[in-house]
Design a protein that fits this description.
Structural class: mainly beta
Radius of gyration: 21 Å
CATH superfamily of the largest domain: Kelch-type beta propeller
Number of domains: 2
CATH architecture of the largest domain: 6 Propeller
Strand order of the largest sheet: 3-10-9-8-7
Number of strands: 32
Largest sheet: 5 strands, antiparallel
Oligomer: single chain
Helix content: under 10%
Length: about 375
């Protein structure tokens, strides 16, 4: 080979290596998405644009994604089937996955963002500072999903495997002999994990799975949608959304809502992203909520609500476990009262700000997830 051709070949190989050595390969559509380089335990970067985010969530309908043109994390608002850019952004992220949950590492911001690359995770500590989380995973932390105290990562290097993180240890949590349909998972406010599966190398999904906090399959909804250029998913206010990027021949730059009704997953109309926005990698929401149609196995523990109907307050009576908590939803599955800890057997709940209606109280008490309806007069 002539020296000039050798030089050209060497340059081409170098360019390809630098371009794709830190990329995520999608075996379905044979594409790469860029991944950031590994970072040190405490990472801080000079922002390309000033950071405007002071917290992870600014509104009930907020969600976050990786914007391709700017390379930033950006917050969006989804109201009345219209997505707008809130103007909040974070200019630097050391990983390529994204989840929002309570800070499991005693950081200064909670709830906060978690991200990952390889066997390492980081959490956001305000401004452009990311701190390496304690522990290292034996599996690859490709994607993430979280809500409340629940944080999970997806290893999709082969069959789907879900890894749980408790702030100290990464531990295998759930695996199945099926491939993930998209490179992401979502977690609802009860800690259930939602993910799409596909058969073999097919470019369409076959099922939407729901995995309980105990690692049990509690629902499997038949669901057939294209997974080409579907980069992420998110649970927001009780609705499961799939995100599509800019490169597909259909479903470009949009979210696809999937609503749960009885034993069916119902595909709704596409919602376009704002003009000029191109998202990739994971999505994360601020208020996951939970579809009320899913069946959740309950334990033997019970609780009571008194009085019911109630006007200004009610009392929850139960025997709380170490991490017992409660949350209130309306009948559409939208969270109307944020997650609160239960520390005693008798908990007074102020409901003066709620409108007159029927609501659902959900108690997460140890290994049990329990619900009761109450009437606000």
């Amino acid at each position: 080979m002539k020296p000039s051709y050798q030089l050209l070949l060497t340059a081409a190989v170098f360019f390809f290596t630098m371009q794709y050595a830190h990329s995520q390969f999608n075996p379905v559509d044979n594409t790469f998405s860029a991944l950031p380089q590994d970072a040190s335990p405490s990472v801080e970067s000079t922002p390309l644009h000033p950071d405007t985010a002071s917290a992870t969530c600014s509104a009930q309908n907020s969600f976050w994604g990786f914007d391709i043109p700017s390379g930033e994390l950006r917050e969006f608002d989804l109201t009345n089937n219209t997505i707008t850019n809130t103007g909040n952004s974070i200019s630097f992220c050391p990983g390529y996955s994204l989840a929002i949950c309570n800070n499991l590492n005693a950081g200064t911001v909670s709830p906060t963002f978690y991200t990952s690359s390889g066997s390492t995770a980081w959490y956001w500590d305000a401004n452009t500072t990311w701190i390496q989380a304690t522990g290292s995973s034996s599996g690859t932390l490709y994607n993430a999903g979280g809500s409340g105290n629940a944080l999970y990562f997806l290893d999709n290097s082969g069959f789907a495997e879900i890894i749980k993180y408790n702030g100290t240890v990464f531990s295998p949590f759930f695996s199945i002999n099926k491939y993930s349909g998209i490179a992401d998972i979502a977690v609802d406010s009860a800690g259930n994990i939602w993910f799409l599966s596909r058969g073999g190398t097919s470019s369409v999904s076959d099922s939407l799975y729901v995995i309980s906090p105990l690692g049990q399959i509690i629902n499997q909804y038949p669901l057939v949608i294209t997974t080409n250029f579907a980069y992420g998913c998110v649970m927001m206010n009780g609705v499961f959304y799939v995100g599509y990027g800019p490169n597909g021949s259909a479903n470009q730059n949009c979210l696809l809502p999937i609503k749960i009704s009885g034993n069916a997953a119902i595909i709704d109309s596409l919602i376009p992203l704002p003009g000029g926005t191109q998202l990739n990698n994971d999505l994360a929401s601020c208020h996951a909520g939970m579809p009320l149609g899913i069946n959740i196995p309950s334990g033997k523990e019970e609780f009571s609500i008194m009085p019911n109907p109630a006007q200004d307050y009610f009392i929850i009576n139960c025997s709380p476990a170490k991490d017992a908590s409660y949350e209130i939803y309306d009948l559409a599955g939208k969270g109307v009262f944020p997650l609160q800890q239960i520390t005693t057997g008798t908990t007074r709940v102020d409901i003066t700000r709620l409108k007159q209606s029927i609501y659902i109280v959900q108690i997460i008490n140890g290994s049990s997830i329990l619900r009761k309806r109450f009437c606000k007069m």
